[in-house]
Amino acid sequence: MAAGAGPAKAIKFRISNFEFENRGEPILQGLNLYIHRQASSLGRYLWETTVTSGVGWVPGLVGIVLRALFYRLILRMEGVAAIEAGVRLRFADHIRLGRNAYLDEGVYLHACPGGIEIGAGTYVMHHAELHVYNFRRLPHAGIRVGRDSLIGEFNCLRGQGGITIGDRVYFAPLVQVLAVNHVYDDPTRPFVEQGITAQGIVIEDDVWVGAGAIVLDGVRIGRGAVIAAGAVVAADVPAHTVAAGVPARVVREIDGVWRGTAEDLEVYK
């Protein structure tokens, strides 16, 4: 610094949702943080951005065909998967799509180390967010969804502790599956300084989760269970039961007895 020069002027700048303050430090530090929250390396960031910018916006059937061809350059695709316009992909080299998987408009997949796997024939509907969010080297992070499942509109899945979802699992709109929790027991320290826990969530085959339900970390939902709309699941749910309420409790078993009658309910198959 030249003699008589004043202190370096603080410069604030915003990239995406991150705000950095530069007090004489290189702005490249902020750019480096941003890039390493988006891709595995600078080269991968440039490559993935080039491919998605080139064909990610193209609407309709033409766009689906182009993305089926070109997105296999940046992610793992078995057979052909259908990807609508406006799908946002981060850490694409950690994403695997099974044959005939479908990503609707506005879907956001952030697969930072741990990865996201979408099984064959599974649909991820519009504005669903699947975010591994592993910036702490968590050992079990990742999101695995089985075959012929449905991730509904505006679902949110956070996979720090690992989320495993079986085959033929259906999530209604606005479901949240959150495999992470904050530690907050020390009143003398902010909770953001106390760390997190990440036990993981398992949802077995043939589970139906109703609209607006929330599944919390450390839970296993057994095969064929039904979670009622609006339930908050904080403990394991046995197979072939119905759980409802806040917190969710088993309200009945699924025992093969039809609760409706032919006169008041029509069943469509």
Structure description:
The chain has 3 helices and 27 strands. The protein is flat. It has 269 residues and is α/β, with parallel strands linked by helices. The strands form 6 sheets. Strands 3-6-9-12-15-20-23 form a 7-stranded parallel sheet, with no helix packed on it. It has one domain: UDP N-Acetylglucosamine Acyltransferase, domain 1 (3 Solenoid). The N terminus is likely disordered.
Strand content: 25-35%
Rg result: 22 Å
Output the CATH topology: UDP N-Acetylglucosamine Acyltransferase, domain 1
Structural class: alpha/beta
**Count of alpha and pi helical runs:** 3
Shape summary: flat
The CATH architecture comes to: 3 Solenoid
Question: How much helix is in the residues?
Answer: 10-25%
Number of strands: 27
Quick one: biggest sheet? 7 strands, parallel
| Element-level helix/strand string | EEHHHEEEEEEEEEEEEEEEEEEEEEEEEE
- The CATH class turns out to be Mainly Beta
- What is the CA–CA distance across the termini? 77 Å
Poorly predicted regions are 1-8, 13-20
Number of domains: 1
Strand order of the largest sheet: 3-6-9-12-15-20-23
Could you report the average pLDDT, rounded to the nearest whole number? 90
Q: Looking at this structure, what is the CATH superfamily? A: Hexapeptide repeat proteins
